[in-house]
Amino acid sequence: MNYDYIIVGAGIGGLSAGLNLVSNNKKVLILEKNSLPGGYVTTFKRGRFEFDVSLYDLMDYGNEEHIGSLQRILKKYGVEIETLPIPYNIKIKSRENNFEENIKGEIDDWVLQLEELHSGSISTFRSLLPVLKEIHEALGAIKKGRENVEKDFPNFIKYLDKNAYEALVDLNLPNDTIHILGYNWIEIGSPLNKLNFIDFAEYMYKYIFKRPVALKNKNIDFVLQMVKRYEELGGKIYYRSYVKEIINKENKKEVVLEDGTKYYAKKVICNLSERYVYKNLVKETNDFAIKKENARTLSMNGLVVYLGLNKSYQDLKLYNYRYYEFDNLNSEINIKNMKKFSHHTIEAIVPNIVNESASPKNTTILVLKTLYYGDVWNSVNKSNYYQIKEILANELIEEFESTFGIDIKEYIEEIEIATPFTFERFTNNINGCIFGAMRLGYDNSIHRLLSYEEEKDPNLSFVGGSSLFGSGVDNAFYSGYYITEKLLEEERKEI
Question: In sequence order, which residues have a C-beta less than 8 Å from that of residue 279 and are 6 or more positions away?
Fold first, then answer.
């Protein structure tokens, strides 16, 4: 059967791309290997608990004053979602620095806390805010096709090729304040001394001005709303459809499934990592494409422990939405430690803090995550896999208990452990990397955006966390919209 577009993968990027195309009267087919859509944005049940795999906040949904791209485009598609505000309610601890801080209240309250710890934080932080705003506006201008930004956005040009640490030093922030302010590098997947400042600035702008929100309902409800609207507009989606190969056929693409079924389209969009596609699905492409992809650095992978606790978060004294535990406030040191099993950087999330109905009454969901960098998991084989993941999960639980003084082990009713192998199996992300390709040096978001026209195959495009804007639901969603807008624009030029 022939289509205008075939999309491989029903993750957020693929669904966003599909929605935009069918909204423009294109004949679209989405092929998804799993039985449910959403990719990382999905839900699973264990006993009486329903766990969200990921997505505990939306960074670019925004508010009445600062409407985010995600909110604007969802409304354009006709998709309505309910959200809940996320408070600044975070606890950070660093073992080697003997550091502990509770971040509560509004951003101004946090800055006051920083000032008490490190004099000069307030003035330098306030000087940072207009820089963040300017960089956000510059990115918006570039996304709209504006080429000459030097005159109106000098700070964007100034910091274009600086890493986050260099830029924050240049802005005179105290060194310790830099590391505290940059604790959420773990949400981006790159250390401050490697992460491009433009990427860091855009994340901070969304965090400070647009404020993150949480979904009121489970991940799968959000995803199914997108699917429903996509199908209402005429789009097709086939599940359990594992793509085996993508072949060039004159002026169209042939997509072959494992069972031999063939579909045809003018263009194919992959909501998959480019490395996986070039390694497994596409045999005919130029060497430049392969060399460019192999030069990229894959992000960290992780172990995630999903806990259903038979006690309320109030009784457990889980008063924070997020908990962070680092070896050191310096993100570079943490990255080095992530290359071995013996060190755990911990991020913990308590969804019930934001949404009391996240789990049954008088129960709590607690999600623990630790990250690994490099090939540490490649030493694990089938014979000791289950043993190792259970050992690591227990270590993570015990470390959380001892660090934050909160007893949880005796209240565990349900537990599920996801490893890099789990994520690779469900998403086809090589090594189970959860942030796609790291945004480093030449491969930061702005360089990806500016080099978009260098697409190696004019009939093959990529969306999702490994594509233009990097990881995160908001970025994946916007990549689907942005890429399809470009493709539709190209079609109009051909007419």
Answer: 430
Contact predicate 46/194, CB 8 Å: no
Residue 317: strand, helix, or coil? coil
Instruction: Report the Cα–Cα distance between both ends of the chain, in Å, rounded.
Output: 24
3-state secondary structure of 5: strand
Among residues 221, 219, 210, which one has the least CA distance to residue 65? 210
User: Could you read off the pLDDT of 62-88 as tens digits, one per residue?
Assistant: 877 778 889 999 999 999 899 998 887
Tokens of 390: 């259970």
| Alpha-carbon distances, residue 443 vs 220, 235, 291, 475 (angstroms) | 32, 33, 13, 15
Give per-residue pLDDT as tens, 456-494.
677 889 998 777 777 788 888 989 999 999 899 888 887
pLDDT tens-place string over residues 125-183: 888 889 999 999 998 888 877 777 788 899 988 988 888 889 988 988 887 778 777 77
Q: Tabulate helix, strand, coil % of the chain (nearest 5).
A: 45, 20, 35
Distance of alpha carbon 372 from the chain centroid: 16
Supply the DSSP symbol for 265.
Answer: E
Give the integer Cα–Cα distance in Å for 130 and 491.
38
Q: List, in order of start, the domains of the chain with CATH numbers.
A: 2-46+68-81+216-296+439-494 (3.50.50.60), 107-210 (no CATH), 300-427 (no CATH)
